[in-house]
């Protein structure tokens, strides 16, 4: 073999080996529990018992994080009889003991059961049964405070769903609601009621129905930094506890009873599609003066607005009488929404000299007359 051929062959082998080393070194390991524990100052523990945990939330290992890539495959591609036995047991549906996981916030780390996690992921499972020990972060940050409050709330209520709040002390207010509901249930049923039982009834008959009303009203769109649970806490705190009535036409008193238990009673009588809408209809009138010769063009443009329901060309001090219907959510006022429509749409049309807005304080409308020819009494 000539020098050139030998050198070419050497470079091929060398480059291939280097590529393999880079691939191996480039594999991402699972996260180290110890590193995350020190980062979060998570040293206090809570026993969470046995739960079913989503595999994609298991992100690291306590002692063997160097042995696995981030999909929990063994980085050393060495056949493992133990792993093969676990695979076969899982395929056949044979019961295996729960794995043991350490939890920090919403992430889980394997204390015992790395092979079972690897096999479950390889076989495409979504969940695995695990015994959980939670390590609670102790740093005095906003996230730390909120997490500890959320953990305490979850401990006391044992609710089936996570409730995420972004303000400190709001979990305490929800616990207070549940305590009040517990007293109500005991008085209604005539016997003691466990706190967790009251919490589940509160969740099903009070919290979840109001949450659906809030979601349907799309209130959270106005508060992108907040959660739906935040809005639930805010609305009920001001409406049920502090009894604040907002006097600029919000109309929340028509939708949500002033008393939590009255709201519960009403919701138990309704099906979900029958829940009230968190929207308010506003009817008002606009009196307009127009430039001469532009009346018909303006009438057509006004009529094209979906919100405009009726237009009258009248004789007198004004030229047009326009009836408008708007809807708004409960976070806005009548004046705010009307002003946006009048100044943002109507006053932008060329040819309008002046407008005057009339908001009815009271109205009484007759129903349309019945067509006698179509009535059941007609002969």
Strand content: 15-25%
> What value does the Rg take, in angstroms?
33 Å
Q: In whole angstroms, how far apart are the ends?
A: 115 Å
Q: Could you tell me the mean pLDDT? A: 80
**Poorly predicted runs of 5 or more residues:** 1-26, 244-250, 375-379
SS-based class: alpha/beta
Count of beta strands: 10
Described by the principal axes of the CA atoms, the overall outline is elongated
Largest sheet: 6 strands, mixed
Instruction: Give the number of helices.
Output: 12
* Element-by-element helix/strand order: HEHEEHEEHEHHHHHHEHEEHE
Number of structurally distinct domains: 3
Strand order of the largest sheet: 1-3-5-4-6-2
Task: Give the helix level as a range of percent.
Answer: 40-55%
Characteristic key phrases:
single chain, alpha/beta, Conserved hypothetical protein from pyrococcus furiosus pfu- 392566-001, ParB domain, Alpha-Beta Plaits, 3 domains, 6-stranded mixed β-sheet, 4-stranded antiparallel β-sheet, 12 helices, 10 strands, 42% helix, disordered N terminus
């Amino acid at each position: 073999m000539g020098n050139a051929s030998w050198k070419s062959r050497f470079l091929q082998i060398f480059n291939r080996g280097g590529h393999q080393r880079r691939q191996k070194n480039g594999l991402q390991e699972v996260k180290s529990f110890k590193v995350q524990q020190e980062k979060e100052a998570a040293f206090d523990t809570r026993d969470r018992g046995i739960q079913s945990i989503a595999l994609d939330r298991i992100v690291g290992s306590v002692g063997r994080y160097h042995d696995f890539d981030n999909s929990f495959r063994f980085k050393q591609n060495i056949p493992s009889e133990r792993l093969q036995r676990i695979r076969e047991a899982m395929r056949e549906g044979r019961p295996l003991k729960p794995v043991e996981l350490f939890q920090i916030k919403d992430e889980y780390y394997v204390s015992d059961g790395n092979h079972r996690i690897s096999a479950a992921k390889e076989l495409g499972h979504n969940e695995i049964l695990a015994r959980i020990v939670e390590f609670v972060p102790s740093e005095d940050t906003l996230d730390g405070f909120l997490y500890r409050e959320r953990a305490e709330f979850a401990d006391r209520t044992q609710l089936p769903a996570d409730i995420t709040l972004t303000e400190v002390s709001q979990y305490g207010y929800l616990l207070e609601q549940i305590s009040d509901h517990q007293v109500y249930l005991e008085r209604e049923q005539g016997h003691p009621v466990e706190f967790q039982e009251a919490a589940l009834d509160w969740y099903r008959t009070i919290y979840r129905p109001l949450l659906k009303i809030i979601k349907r009203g799309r209130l959270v769109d106005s508060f992108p930094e907040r959660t739906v649970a935040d809005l639930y806490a805010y609305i009920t705190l001001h409406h049920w506890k502090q009894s604040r009535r907002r006097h600029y036409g919000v109309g929340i008193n028509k939708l949500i009873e002033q008393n939590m238990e009255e709201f519960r009673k009403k919701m138990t009588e309704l099906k979900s599609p029958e829940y009230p809408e968190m929207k308010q209809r506003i009817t008002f009138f606009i009196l307009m003066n127009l430039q001469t010769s532009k009346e018909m063009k303006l009438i057509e443009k006004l009529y094209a607005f979906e919100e405009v329901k009726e237009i009258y060309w009248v004789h007198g001090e004004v030229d047009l009488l326009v009836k408008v219907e708007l809807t708004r959510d409960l976070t806005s006022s009548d004046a705010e929404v009307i002003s946006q429509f009048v100044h943002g749409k109507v006053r932008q049309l060329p040819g309008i000299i002046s407008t005057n807005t009339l908001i009815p304080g009271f109205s009484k409308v007759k129903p349309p007359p019945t067509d006698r020819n179509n009535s059941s009494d007609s002969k």
